[in-house]
C-alpha cells in the first residue's frame, strides 16, 4: 500500500512540475477510445491544459479490467502533438487488485483528423514493480519485466 501511495505522489509531482511549463491555453476535456496496448479495448478521459494533461483509462482485458492514470507532457501545436508521460497501471480480477503494478511511460503522437478529433499511435514501455519491490533469487533479469505495449487511440475534444 505504501508503494501505491508513493507512486501516486510521484505522478502528482510530475504533473505539477509540468504545469509550470504550460502555455496559457484554455483547458480541454477529451474523451477517447483505445485499442491494444494496456488492454484489448479501453476508454479514457483526459484534461489537457496547454502543454500538459492528466488522463485516466479503463479497459477490458481477458478476465480482468485494467485501470491506469498518467500525466502527459505535449510538445508542438494542437494539430500535431508528440507527447511523453509517466503513470501507473493496475488490473482488477474477481473484484480484487491482483497481479503486479506497472510503471508506464507513454510515448506517442496525436494528429488532428477533423475538427476536435484526433488519432494517434502510442508506445507504452511498462516496467513491472516486481523486480523493484521483491528480492527473489529466481535469477530473472530486469529486462524480463519490461513490456513494450503498442496502442492506437481516437480522441474527441468536448
Which labels suit this protein?
single chain; 158 residues; mainly beta; Porin; 10-stranded antiparallel sheet; 2 helices; 10 strands; 57% strand
Structural class: mainly beta
Radius of gyration: 16 Å
Q: Count of DSSP E strands?
A: 10
Question: What is the overall pLDDT average?
Answer: 79
Strand content: over 45%
Q: How would a textbook summarize the main sheet?
A: 10 strands, antiparallel
CATH architecture: Beta Barrel
Which regions contain 5 or more consecutive residues with pLDDT less than 50?
A: 17-23
Shape: globular
According to CATH, the fold-level topology is Porin
Number of separate domains: 1
**Number of helical segments with 4 or more residues:** 2
The helical percent reads: 10-25%
Compute the separation of the termini in Å.
Answer: 35 Å
CATH class membership = Mainly Beta
Series of H and E elements: HEEEEEEEEEHE
Record the SSE blueprint.
Layout: H1 2-19, E1 28-36, E2 41-49, E3 52-61, E4 64-74, E5 80-93, E6 96-97, E7 102-104, E8 107-114, E9 117-128, H2 130-133, E10 146-157
Antiparallel strand pairs: 1-2, 1-10, 2-3, 3-4, 4-5, 5-6, 5-7, 5-8, 7-9, 8-9, 9-10
Description:
The protein is mainly β. It has one domain (2-157): Porin (Beta Barrel). 14% of the residues lie in helices and 57% in strands. The protein contains two helices and ten strands, in the order αβββββββββαβ. It has helices at 2-19, 130-133; strands at 28-36, 41-49, 52-61, 64-74, 80-93, 96-97, 102-104, 107-114, 117-128, 146-157. Strands 1, 2, 3, 4, 5, 6, 7, 8, 9 and 10 form a ten-stranded antiparallel β-sheet that branches. Strand 1 (28-36) and strand 2 form a beta hairpin. The longest helix has 18 residues, at 2-19. It is globular, with a radius of gyration of 16 Å. The N and C termini lie far apart (35 Å). The model is unreliable at 17-23 (pLDDT under 50).
Amino acid at each position: 500500500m505504501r508503494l501505491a501511495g508513493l507512486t501516486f505522489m510521484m505522478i502528482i509531482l510530475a504533473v505539477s512540475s509540468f504545469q509550470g511549463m504550460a502555455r496559457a491555453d484554455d483547458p480541454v476535456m477529451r474523451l477517447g477510445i483505445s485499442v491494444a496496448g494496456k488492454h484489448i479495448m479501453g476508454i479514457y478521459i483526459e484534461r489537457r491544459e496547454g502543454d500538459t494533461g492528466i488522463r485516466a483509462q479503463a479497459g477490458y482485458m481477458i478476465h480482468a479490467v485494467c485501470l491506469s492514470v498518467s500525466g502527459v507532457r505535449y510538445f508542438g501545436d494542437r494539430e500535431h502533438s508528440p507527447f511523453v508521460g509517466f503513470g501507473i497501471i493496475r488490473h482488477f480480477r474477481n473484484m480484487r487488485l491482483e497481479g503486479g503494478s506497472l510503471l508506464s511511460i507513454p510515448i506517442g503522437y496525436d494528429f488532428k483528423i477533423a475538427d476536435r478529433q484526433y488519432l494517434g499511435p502510442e508506445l507504452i514501455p511498462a516496467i513491472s514493480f516486481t523486480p523493484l519491490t521483491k528480492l527473489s533469487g529466481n535469477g530473472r533479469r530486469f529486462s524480463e519485466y519490461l513490456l513494450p505495449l503498442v496502442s492506437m487511440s481516437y480522441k474527441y475534444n468536448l
